[in-house]
Amino acid sequence: MLRSLVGSEMCIRDSSSVVNMLTQTVVLAGQLASQYNLPPEHPVELLMAHMCHKLRIPIQQIKEPSRPPVCDEVTEDLEASTCDGIDPSDEAPSPSPSACPQAWWPAVEHTCHRWVPEYDEPLVSADDKSDDKLRVVRTGRGHRSFRVVFRRDDVIRPPLGSDQESEGDLGNSARLGELQFESRFESGNLALSTLSWVEPGRLYEYEMKVSNDTNTAGHTQWFYFRVSNADPNAVYQFSITNFKKKDSLFQQGLKPVLYSDKLAATKQIGWHRAGWSICYKSTERSPGSTLSFQIKFAGGGNHYLAYGVPYRTVDLEQDLDRICSRHPSIVSRSILAHTFCGQEVPLLEISDGASETDGRRKKAILISSRVHAGETNASWVMLGMLQQLVSEKSAPLRAAYKLYIIPMLNPSGVALGNYRCSIMGLDLNRQWRSPSQSITPEVYALKNLVVSLNTTLNLFLDLHGHSRALNTFCYGCPGSDLTLERVYPYLLSQLDDRFSLPQCTYSASAGKEGTARVAVWKESGQQASSLTIEASLGGGQGVHYNSAALQSIGRSAAKAISEWSRLGEDAE
Question: How far is CA 276 from CA 177, 291, 496, 553, in A?
Fold first, then answer.
C-alpha cells in the first residue's frame, strides 16, 4: 500500500481528505522506520522523507509521533510533480540527520575482488551450440513450487549482519540445495525470489525480480545478490522477469559475473563470467523482458552474482586513499558536493602545483564518471585514467593543464544498488538545464564548477557504460570534422584497437540538452571539446571486458588526452 501511494500522491488535486490520508500514511511510515531502525535507503524511510517534502511536513514531526503533523493545503508543486522521481524544480529544505542517517548497509568484503582471469572470457556466439549439451530440463521427478524465499522490502526481515538476522524467515529452508538469498549490502539489488520448480539434487528454478531505482517505477537492470546453501551437484535456473529494456547485451553474448567465497579461499579466483543457456526476451506474462540462465555453484558457502564486476563507494575510497597518499604533490582531494543524504562527492585536482603558465591561468580539463550508478565499468575506466594521469609519463600534461576529476558523481545511487538514478529517483544526466541545489546538489555543484572554469575549460569527458552496444566509442557535439573534438576520438582509436571510431556520433538533439556533454559544450560557448566515452558493459572483439581491460582502456584514454593537448598547443 505504501509503495502504491508514492505514485498515487503525485496525481492529487486540492482535496483535504486525500491530504489527511497521505499524512496518516507518512505517520505510519515514520513509526515503522523508528520501530525497526530502518536504513535510509529502505522504501519506507524514503517514502517518509519524500512525502514530507511534498506535503510540507517537518520531518521532525514524523519522527516524534506525539506532535501530530499539520498540512493545511496541497501546494502547486504536488500537482505538477511526475511519477518518476521528485520534481527537480522543487526546492526542499536541507535534509535533517534524522531524515537521512549515515548508516548505510555494509559492503561485502571480497578478498579477491580485484582478481582478473589470465585468459580472455569469450562472448557467447549466436552460432555456439555447446550450451545445448549443458542445459538441464525438467523431468517428471520434480514438482512445482510457488514459495517466496526472499523479499528485500519486507520490513519484518532484519538487515544483513544484525543481531536479529535469521535464515529461516520468509520460507527459506535449510534443506541442502534450496538457496538462501540476500541483497541487503552496498550496491546489492534483488527484490524478490520465488522457488518455482524443485527436483532435489538435480534442478532448482527461481523466478526473481530486481528492485526499481529508488523513488522510481523502473530502471531495472543492475543486479547483485548473494546465494548460499547450494548443492554442488545441482543446476540452478534463474529467471529475472522485470527488466525494462527490450534489448540487451545478453542477446549478444554477455554473461553475468560470479564470485565464490570457496573459490577465492582455495584457488584465489575472484569475479569471472559464468552461466549457460542465457536467454533475454520480451514476455507476455509481465511487461518488459526476462533474463534467464542456468548455473552451478562450487560447493557450500556464499556465492555472489552480478550484472558486472561491482565497483562500490568502498572501492573508490580505497583507490583514492592509495592514489592521494602516493602522490601528495600532484593530487589534492576536496568535496565537490554532498548528496541529498549527506554523502560526499569527491573532487580531485591533478596538476604539478603551479596555478599559472607563462603568467596565464592554466587551462583546464574536466573528467566525470559514474553519473549512472549501475555502469560500474565506467569506474574501472576512471581508475585506469587516474593511474595514467599521476604517472611520470603525464608530467607534461600536468605542467600545461589542471585536471579536475569527479570519479563518482552519484554515490547515493551506487550505494543503494540503483541502475541509473540518484536517491531522489532522478537521472542526474538529464538535469543539467536547471539543476536544483537541494534535489540535485551533485549536478548543481558540477555545473557551477564548469561556470567557474569559464574560458579555461578546453576538454570535458564524461565516462559511461553502454548496455546495448559492443566496443568503446564516443558521443560528441556538432562541429567541423577538423575540430579538436573530432581529433580526440581519432587519437584514442590509434592508441587502443578496442576503440571503434565508426561507432562515434556527433549531435546535440533537443532530447540531450539536459546531458552533461551538451550542457558543458553550450556553457563554454561551444568552444570546449565535450565528449561522452561509452565503454560497453559487455565487451568487444568477441571477448568480455574484465576490470583489467577496462583499466587499460582508461590508460589509453588518458594517453590520448596528452596527445590531444599537444595538438591543441600547436594549433595556438
Answer: 19, 12, 30, 28
